[in-house]
Design a protein that fits this description.
The protein contains three helices and four strands. With about 140 residues, it is α+β, with helices and mostly antiparallel strands. The protein has one domain. A four-stranded antiparallel beta sheet has the order 1-2-3-4. Strand 2 and strand 3 form a beta hairpin. The longest helix has about 45 residues. It is elongated, with a radius of gyration of 24 Å.
């Protein structure tokens, strides 16, 4: 079972983004990190030394997505442009995209649902706290102090 790890840095307007992909056993896991301004080679090296393990753990925590198999035949350049345009249109319409894009989408969905749940719990706790304070004030008023 071979495992390959790829870290790609690309410009995703308006920020530079690093995408870590882990491909193993026909499955792809991915995560991304937003850099902001364009990182230099030295900054990337330092980033990977400091945060590489955490980035790998974050990628392994994400659900795997089946990797797409690629054909060995290389199409004509004009056909390749047509296929790329068709794929871009498909992705723009909200379709599945590549395996790493699907993995990133799932990661985003998980983070969003986790954040929503945490926010809901925080609001409920705050509401209960305010209710307890109001109840204590009412009780204090009834006592006549």
């Amino acid at each position: 079972m071979s495992t390959s790890v790829t870290f790609t840095v690309c410009f995703d307007a308006p920020f530079w983004v690093g995408v870590l992909e882990i491909a193993e056993a026909g499955q792809v896991r991915a995560t991304r990190h937003v850099f902001g301004s364009e990182p230099t080679d030295a900054e990337l090296y330092q980033f990977l030394l400091r945060h590489g393990t955490a980035l790998l753990e974050r990628a392994h925590a994400n659900p795997p997505v089946p990797a797409e198999t690629r054909r060995g035949v290389r199409p004509n350049p004009k056909r390749a442009m047509r296929l790329a345009a068709k794929e871009a249109a498909r992705i723009a319409q909200g379709s599945r995209g590549t395996a790493s894009q699907e993995a990133l989408r799932r990661e985003l969905e998980q983070r969003t649902s986790r954040s929503t749940e945490e926010t809901r719990q925080r609001k409920q706790a705050e509401s209960e706290r305010k209710y307890a304070i109001a109840r204590a004030k009412r009780k204090e008023r009834k006592r006549g102090h």
